[in-house]
Amino acid sequence: MNGLCTDGVYKVPGVKSKVQSLKVQYNRRQSVNLADYDLAVVTSLLKQYLRELPDPILTSDLLSKFEDAGETQNTELTKLLISELPLCNKHTLTWLIVHFTSIIENEKYTKMNTTNFGCVLCPVLQMSQKLFSFLVTKKNELFPRAILHKYIPPLRCASPYLPSGKQEMTIELKKQESLLSYIHREMNAGFVCKTKEEELWDVQRIITQLKRKLKVLEKDNHKVSKEKPKKENHINGKFEAVGTQTQTALDRQNSNNSVLGKAEVVSITSDTANISNYDGSLVDDDIQTTTSDSDNEELVLQYESEELMSLIANLKDNIVQEKCEIDRLQSKLVSVGKIVNVREYFTCPIDETAVANSVLLTEYKMLQFQKMNILKSIEEEREAILDLKIQIKLAQRKHMGIV
């Protein structure tokens, strides 16, 4: 909101050294906090980015057609031309126009109307003043689906809690998967660093936790939806039986009207006792069903705990073996390291060594990236195996007639 209340926004140039520093951070895919920079630095970098694009946002092929549509104020033709833009260009144009419109709508504070704002940006966007004015004034018709929502960033590993509702968890899972896809693209492009690897690992862990919570929630919902009609059918069946017996008793009373007094009282009392017995058995059955469900949940938790403890023991054994292997390799390096270093020093020129080290470092980073993906796959497979083992144990127990 700071830029929407600043006088002459986009008019004042930023300090060149700071603009260049911010540009370098973006090009290196580093984390950027725009609050650390003056508004003029940020707006100058955006103008520089648009100016240095190899092709205009409206593309060289369609630019003249856009100009003709703007000249005639043809909304339908302009919408058709926008749909023909490459996806990246279309998204960039959409949100730029939304942003520029917001600044113009706050002319009271920014002192920037369509005309003087166009004078600043039209050369950068490589379009005429008339086309710029047309795109801004017809924003709602040309970009009807461009609606701003408050941005809530994906959770980080340091977050104290995960969302509990199904809808919130689903939304957060989409954010995390989108972030994971972005990190993969960056690392595949060669932008690999320790911070990026740690971020990748944290995002994968959050995705795993969210999927696990969603799975548990879906199981609980499925169990509730499955038990509800069963319980209703059970109750309806009981009351139908009670109603049938009561009707039989009434018919028997009507057919024996000559029998009065004590016999009638005994019959009604007997039927009432039967109804009470049915009600009692109905409550007992409900209690038994609840107890059975509780026992099953306890069994699942017990089996899950046993499998996790077994997994922990196996992992500890693997860690001990890995440490022994590390010690062995380190002792081997100590014994031969000096000889190898001396040989490399005398046989390899400094430049060649630097190039070789750079290549090895790049390969190492790519291998680390592949390792992280493999570890993620292993973790998911372990969870699937754990669930299957629990299901097998429950099925075996049920087959043996214990449950």
TrEMBL record:
<dbReference type="GO" id="GO:0005096">
    <property type="term" value="F:GTPase activator activity"/>
</dbReference>
<protein>
    <recommendedName>
        <fullName>Rho-GAP domain-containing protein</fullName>
    </recommendedName>
</protein>
<dbReference type="Pfam" id="PF00620">
    <property type="entry name" value="RhoGAP"/>
</dbReference>
<keyword id="KW-0175">Coiled coil</keyword>
<dbReference type="InterPro" id="IPR049041">
    <property type="entry name" value="RalBP1-like_Ral-bd"/>
</dbReference>
<dbReference type="Pfam" id="PF20924">
    <property type="entry name" value="RLIP76_Ral-bd"/>
</dbReference>
<dbReference type="GO" id="GO:0007264">
    <property type="term" value="P:small GTPase-mediated signal transduction"/>
</dbReference>
<feature type="coiled-coil region">
    <location>
        <begin position="200"/>
        <end position="227"/>
    </location>
</feature>
<feature type="domain" description="Rho-GAP">
    <location>
        <begin position="1"/>
        <end position="155"/>
    </location>
</feature>
<dbReference type="InterPro" id="IPR000198">
    <property type="entry name" value="RhoGAP_dom"/>
</dbReference>
<dbReference type="InterPro" id="IPR008936">
    <property type="entry name" value="Rho_GTPase_activation_prot"/>
</dbReference>
<feature type="coiled-coil region">
    <location>
        <begin position="305"/>
        <end position="332"/>
    </location>
</feature>
<dbReference type="GO" id="GO:0031267">
    <property type="term" value="F:small GTPase binding"/>
</dbReference>
<keyword id="KW-0343">GTPase activation</keyword>
<dbReference type="InterPro" id="IPR039767">
    <property type="entry name" value="RALBP1"/>
</dbReference>
